[in-house]
Amino acid sequence: MPDSEHNELAAPLARMGLIPPGGAFTAMRLSGGVSCDVWKVERPGKPALVVKRALEKLRVAADWRAPPERWKTEVAWLRLAGAIDPATAPQILGEDEAARMFAMAFLADCPLWKAELAAGRIDVAFAATTGRKLAAIHAATAGRADIAKQFDHGAQFFALRPEPYLLFTAARHPDVGAKIRKMSESIMSARIALMQGDISPKNILVGPGGPVFLDAETACYGDPVFDLAFCINHLLLKCVWHPEHRAQYVESFRALVGAYLAGVNWEDPAALEKRAARLLGALLLARIDGKSPVEYLTAESDKAFVRKTALDFLKSEEESLETMARVWGEKLDSR
């Protein structure tokens, strides 16, 4: 680790009480995605921990900025999720306002779900557990005025999700732009339950008690359908990335959706599914033509397949997630 980074971490770690002033530690950078700096910190004779800092300008080709104060939102969401179900979030160990950093427990031997999916180690039961536990968090926060007030983070959610994913994509596709903009407006105006905002296989650890959710800096009170659609979107995209595992990805999609909908007790599950299906079409398109395209689909033929199928879904205003999974599989088979 460069001396500059060591010095950058030393004072915050000491202020959080995680090392004595001038105490020894080593740090290794982890993949923080596009929005954060993340380090694994090891201290003599103590458990390892993770330190995270939000970036003001995200690491993408487009000019994408977001309030760095969102680290506080992530801490608050992880604490709340951990109170609802301790197995679903790592323990927060410290916060440092001056450096805009926080520390949390390092969970050893908990692989990323994205890595497991990519390697063909596909556990359909784990997908179902993810859907069930996500629905439980939404159910516990639905209709809660206190949580709505605590997570009234519309501006930072807009900067991180509707603007780069939905509105940027809408501008590139005028034929469906009005529909996508309407979805964005609906999500921004909803006050139903707490959205985590970044439920994705790359942000989910496979823990002994099921999924451990990470990267909650986008959390905002709104429409929980965003979390469902954001997650299952990746299960369909991975069918294009690794077509040899298509059947298992689709089975995981169905298991997650079924378990999630079975836990919806705050509204009519059928109404929620309709919103999820329409949003799914927009998010599929956004992961090709938005500000944050998926890094693993690089072939133009793959991008064209996702783009065309997503546009077909949007134009037909598909309302059934089961139909979308079936059509996705059939079109992949016919490529």
Assign the CATH superfamily of the largest domain: Aminoglycoside phosphotransferase (APH), C-terminal lobe
Residue share in β-strands = 5-15%
Oligomeric grouping of the chains = single chain
Biggest sheet features: 5 strands, antiparallel
How would you sum up this structure, described in words?
This protein is α+β, with helices and mostly antiparallel strands. It folds into 2 domains: 3-105, Phosphorylase Kinase, domain 1 (2-Layer Sandwich), CATH 3.30.200; 113-333, Aminoglycoside 3'-phosphotransferase, Chain: A, domain 2, CATH 3.90.1200.10. Helices cover 53% and strands 14% of the residues. The protein has helices at residues 3-15, 70-84, 113-118, 124-141, 145-150, 154-160, 162-172, 174-189, 225-241, 246-262, 269-289, 300-316, 321-333, and strands spanning 26-30, 36-43, 46-54, 92-96, 101-105, 193-195, 204-207, 210-213, 220-222. The strands form 3 sheets. The protein has a 5-stranded antiparallel beta sheet with strand order 1-2-3-5-4, with helices on both faces. Strands 6-9 form a two-stranded antiparallel sheet. α6 (154-160) crosses α7 (162-172), α7 crosses α11 (269-289) and α10 packs antiparallel against α13 (321-333). The model has no long low-confidence stretch (mean pLDDT 93).
